[in-house]
Amino acid sequence: MIKEIYSKLPAKILDPIKSILRQVLLILLSIAITSILIWIMGYSPLAVFDGLSNGITKDFPGTLRWTTPLILSGLAIAVAFKTGAWNLGVDGQLYMGALAATAVSLGLSTLPGVLLFPITVLAGIIAGMLWALLAGILRTQYGANDLVSSLLLTYVAYHFSDYLIHGPLKSGAYGPAESSNIIPETVWLPKIIEGSSVTIGLIVAIVLAVVLYFLIFRTTLGYELKVVGSNLWFSRYGGIKVKAVYLKGMAISGAISGLIGVIEILGVHHRFPIRFSSGLGFDGIVVSLLASNNPLGVIISGLFFGALRNGSYNIERLTEIPRAMVIIVQAIIVLMVGMQVIIKFKKQKKDKQSSNDDQSKETEELNTFNTNGSEG
Amino acid sequence: MDYVIEMKSINKTFPGVMANNDVSLNIIPGEIHALVGENGAGKTTLMNILYGLHQQDSGEIFVQGKKETINTPSDAIKLGIGMVHQHFMLVPELTVLENIILGRENTKFGFTDYKTSEKEILGISEKYQLNVNLHDRTYKLSVGQMQRVEILKSLYRGAKLLILDEPTAVLIPQETKQLFDILRTLTNQGCSVVFISHKLKEVLEISNRITVMRQGKVTGVVNTKETNELELACLMVGREVVFRVKKELATPGETVLEVRNLCALNDRGLPALKNINFNIRLGEILGVAGVEGNGQLELVETLTGLRAATHGSIVFKGENIEQCTPREKREKGVSHIPADRLIMGINTKCTISENLILNKYYRVPLSRHGVFNKDNIKTFVNRLVSEYGIITPDPNSLASSLSGGNMQKLVLARELDGEPELLVASQPTRGVDVGAIEYIHSQIIKMRDQKHAVLLVSAELDEILCLADRIIVMYEGEITGEFHSTDIPEHEIGLYMAGSKRMSVAQVN
């Protein structure tokens, strides 16, 4: 009966359902493995499930609070991956965005809110974008590996923010030393759930996911990003300016990262606490991976990891199970997805060998932008 | 009769493809057995099974009448089976001798004993008349010589059966002749040879028996003496094939492309084009003959804007387009079928539809202000798919799902749509099956007859002779010969291709 319905559904509906089912299975498997590990360590093996259900049933606003930045960082990674850009610097770009937003709103605090708010948001977005573009330009101009440079620039951003918070942005009279002053209330994001940290940032994240979906699948820019991301020779041959397209992808990714910083500061912290992100930018990798880099899928997987993260905070508060178990779950999911990719790749390779007798030429070394072609 | 090799009812399935379906193959001692078929017919798969690179799902292999299981190439080598791959497996920096003994060195007190090996190899080399200098560095050798080293390597490992995968694809006519002489000597001495090819002429010349495969099945085993090109082609394709494309005499019009003193570098920064001069007129096919790697690739890339010229001019319709980007050139009417289909011609990670729109996606009607018009794209894609007979269940499936011939039809559809005035076609029929070759050739002729110009670069001399109205020969980045008719004997052009003959500058221009 179910099979019959199943077979009648068109591929357009069936494929997403299949892929979601596959991912759910993957998650369950990962949690099972983690549970065994936790059990060996002498805690309750159901801790992860407890955490998850806790996060969803008892403290849903808390889950949504974490969902917001996770969706955004998933999107930042997804766009970069589509473009073939290895932007592992989302966390750093997020700090630069947060710093810019903090500095601008504090520095221009005398401006009226109508002016200050857009300037603050824009400053954060631009700062994130420029930080990502720095890594991008290092690749297009000098052939530096973007994975390495974006990652290392993250540490520069960390320490730069440390310096600013201990120095020029150091809080005056108020509160703990390891933070900036509180930013003007005029730029605080309006809450959508009273008594929580859930702000319009969540709506922005969801809308952005839809916009990116449209961008990737319905626009010429999205087409260019995908083509450049999958085959540089083909792109050049088709007359696409690969460097420009790559930098556009990097810029979008960085801008989204900057926006995470803005929303964290304006929506949740209302000041810049030192090292506040706790790896949000890196979590985007697993969020995007689980969603197969699909912007709409990122909403769902962002929600899942939001619940996991929130649940883990609650569990740590209530029991003695370390929060690190969430990191273990994430790591195992990354491994699982990685394995899936490898299996798929091997299968494809085998298929190719069999069906194309003579065309086994591998796509080699697509990673070089700097051939002596005359493209601009 | 005793067979050297007997493969019985071999079945091999890859996900989604039945690569070998109940295939049987017998090799008589001392024969040259040709294995022919289109791409994807399963020839290479069958040989990979014999050589231990793949394992059969079912079926048996007998070597000298004894049933054997071959799990790895070293099993095969132990049984006296050797294989020379299409892409040579040699270390360029080592000498010929070092390459041959690599992995099977004679040792004396733990040191490599070159003397004994050398003696042994010289013996084999003399016996079969494989003339190679054992102390040359391998990178200095010509392709033909490298192939001989590969054969020597197999013989040194005790091969009694030699599998050659498309051995002539990289050779000029003269080298092919030499190879054939070697193969005859080999078989006279009792070795057997399996010769994989889809060049029927050669197969008829060299082989004793022929096994024809189509879509994973054997469609015929024939004695070479009792068959002909037409019968083989029928067995291969399953229908009659026209060999010579029918074409009228060209009636060239005005000059559309003029290349003057063109120079360019290759990827390593060395001169690849040295003062190239030629022109093409409308309604004419200019063939560029030459052994691969003599600057043809760089010429095509420079013409289409993918490579910067260091000197010279490219005048298209009276305008110097040397500085134009690939897209500008395309918009002016220069179209390009690239040699490397799987890397440049097609993006295998994109859908068929995404591949087809590459040249036009950024313009009305496919998109407006950067947003795609889905309906118009669908109409456009469906039109090309049906016009060019691309066989696919769904244009939204991945391009990698297409067969080689259909991939090339996709490239053709994209490049010919919109009637470009100049088509630069590089190896347009490489690795595609006979049916698709026929189609591609007829499309190129059609282009010409509609008064467009075609620059045809091909490593297959046959193809050039068959299609071109005028021929230039490239050797080491220069044009060494120009022929105004195609009524020239192959070996004559072969001399120019090998660089042993050249015309003076005055003659060429």
* Tally of individual helices of chain B: 18
- Poorly predicted sequence stretches spanning 5 or more consecutive residues of chain A: 352-368, 370-376
Number of separate domains of chain A: 1
- Please provide the count of β strands of chain B: 24
Strand residues, percent of chain A:
under 5%
What characteristic shape of chain A results from the CA principal axes? globular
The percent range for strand residues of chain B is 25-35%
Mean pLDDT of chain B: 87
Instruction: Return Rg of chain B in Å.
Output: 25 Å
Main structural class of chain B = alpha/beta
Alpha-carbon distance between the termini of chain A?
Answer: 58 Å
Q: Which residues of chain B form runs of ≥5 with pLDDT under 50?
A: none
With helices defined by DSSP (H or I, 4 residues minimum), what is the helix count of chain A? Answer: 14
- Spatial order of the strands in the main sheet of chain B? 6-9-10-3-11-12
Q: What does the largest sheet of chain B look like?
A: 6 strands, mixed
Into which percent range does the helicity of residues of chain A fall?
over 70%
Largest sheet of chain A: none
Distance between the termini of chain B: 61 Å
- Count interface residues per chain for the largest interface: A-B, 37 and 58 residues
CATH architecture of chain A: Orthogonal Bundle
